[in-house]
Design a protein that fits this description.
extended; Rossmann fold; two-stranded parallel sheet; about 120 residues; 2 strands; mainly alpha; about 5% strand
Length: about 120
């Protein structure tokens, strides 16, 4: 992904979400770590397959000591420092949950918004 960005003269920022294994296991809503430890899943990163930390990420987010808002703030600050996001951009993390009683209206509104087709390379 870094090379694709460099070729296209686009900025690239590698962000390492540094969550210790015990934190990943605590957050494991699907029970995949438990299955991997029981031998039901082979080649599971961090259990029986080594995890390689990035060599030189632009940002490291320590998710065991920072909450979501603090992590978002760090990302925003990086993007502001690199002139990607304006300094006066809001720091507020907006809840994307739509209450049940407003869901139909939100879907109707969403259908009127412009769309843009993107592929895998665009997302990188």
């Amino acid at each position: 992904a870094r090379q694709i960005h460099e070729v296209a003269s686009l900025p690239f920022f590698e962000v390492f979400v540094d969550a210790p294994l015990y934190v990943c296991e605590q957050r494991d809503a699907k029970g995949l770590y438990k299955k991997a430890r029981a031998g039901e899943i082979k080649g599971f990163t961090g259990i029986d397959s080594e995890y390689e930390k990035p060599e030189a990420p632009e940002l490291v987010l320590k998710t065991d000591s920072c909450d979501v808002n603090e992590c978002v703030q760090q990302v925003v600050e990086l993007l502001q420092e690199r002139d990607i996001v304006p300094v006066d951009a809001s720091y507020e993390v907006k809840e994307l949950y739509v209450p049940e009683n407003k869901l139909k209206l939100a879907k109707t509104d969403a259908e009127t918004l412009p769309t843009l087709e993107i592929n895998k390379v665009d997302m990188q």
